[in-house]
Each structure stands twice: as structure tokens, then as C-alpha cells.
């Protein structure tokens, strides 16, 4: 179509734009969006972005610096490194979103951050498998159960597991690697049990050779995470759970660079007993991680999310209704 004959569009008239009315004008023209949730999210995003610029009296130089920073974040992303997730992590946004979208009522296990190094390359393993082949790692038996909130075992749960090697690096951080290691996909048995042989987790630095690391340096923040093992649980009818177990007493327990530690997820390393050594094929006295995970039903989590959302909107004094389980303005 010729640019000299543009199509007619039915949009609000925008004119005489200035500091005071630009926000209302942007919201006005975006307000034609037929999706009420997208319309609401963009309305609030616009409001907060513009208020931020006005409140800080944002300079053109600072605005451009921010754009260039985000450009570098995008350019740093690869198939095995998600710098934007890392950026979200160090601002505490990842934990906040997970806590809002996947509320976990007692006694269910709390969630935490996914992190930037989850991979879909992990291979299916059976109970008793060795998931780490790091010769420098300290052997560790991981023995866990999965139950629902009624205390019943949950069979057939898909469990994603991943951790670093003893040097604090994930497999995907090594160029020329031959395949996945320190990670696996398992399934809980009829008793809700899953167990495997790994290594004792160690504290490690998040990637700090990119723009996120440069930002942390400017903020005088460290880039270390306390020792932990990641877990992700999936089964139809249950709320998706992304979590991790953290070693109590780690030097970074109270200053995790990505704000992932929760008290309920702190554990003490145990010791493999003679009976366990015989049953699980481990050396007596080896290190032991044991934990009883509790999954919450999707229905219960959805109800709690809507309840929390309704209460949050009431505190803000907003007249809202639910749309696909999420709040939107009630304009009827």
C-alpha cells in the first residue's frame, strides 16, 4: 500500500503532548486493546514507567544508558545462558513473580527462583542413578519423598534436578562439553520416593562477565549463591513447583545474589547410616540430603492466588474482577 494513501484508522485524537498529559494519552490509545488483561498490564506499566521518569527527572543520557544496557543484556543471551532471567533474579523480580503466581499454603513446599541454567537436555534416570560424574565432588546420597497436603504419596511426578559441579559451574558453562551432567529427569515411585547419587553442592558465582555482572559491581554487590540443588516438579492436577534445597550455614545463606533462600528450604547435611549404606549402595559415613517435599493441588493454589489478588486489589482501593484467574478493572 502506498505511503501517500494511508489506511483510515479509528483511534483517539492525540495532540499537544507534554509532561503532564503524555501518560494519559498513551493509556488512551493503548486502551483499545480487546484483551482486558493485556490492556490492564500495559496501562499499569505505562503509568509506573512514566512516573519513574518524572520522579527521578530522568535525563536523556540516563535513558540512553538504560537502553544500551538492555541491548547488551539481550546480546549476551544464548541457547544456554539467559541473561534476562539473571537480570530479573538480581532485582528480586523472579522470586516475587513466582510467589505471586504460585502461592504455596502450609504445609506445601515453598518455591524459589528457576535461575538461568535450567536445561531441557537432562536425560531420564531411574532411582539410584548417579547424576554427577565429577571426580572431585564429595559423594552425596539424596533421598526424598513426595506427598500431597493430605500426607499421601504422589506417584508419577516428573522431577527435574540440576546442580553445579564441585568447582561451581554448570555443565552448560563448559565449551566443548560432550553432554549433560549434574542433572537428570526422574519420576517418583508408588511410595512417592525418588533418590539418586550426586555430590555435595557448593557455593558458586552467577555469571558476572556480562552486563548483569557489571551492574552488580557498580552496586558494590557480590555475585555468589549459597550451595544448593535445584528441583522442579510437574504432574497434572498439581501446581507447578520450582524450588531448591540450600545448605544451612553457607557463607552466602543470608546474602544470596538472586534472593532465592527461604528458611523452609534450608537443610542440614546428614550422614549415611550403616543401614542406608547397605540399602542404597553408598559408603557408610557419606553425606546425605533428605527432604520430604509436599505438593499442593492446582485447584488449591489457583484459589489462593485469586484470594491473594482480591485482597491486594482491595488494599489498593481498586474495583477489580477476575479474568482467567487474574485481576482486571471491573468496568461493567
From TrEMBL:
Residues 35-105 form the Catechol dioxygenase N-terminal domain. Keywords: Dioxygenase, Iron, Metal-binding, Oxidoreductase. This is Intradiol ring-cleavage dioxygenases domain-containing protein. Residues 115-295 form the Intradiol ring-cleavage dioxygenases domain. Residues 102-134 are annotated as: Disordered. CDD domains: 1_2-HQD (cd03461). The keyword Coiled coil does not apply.
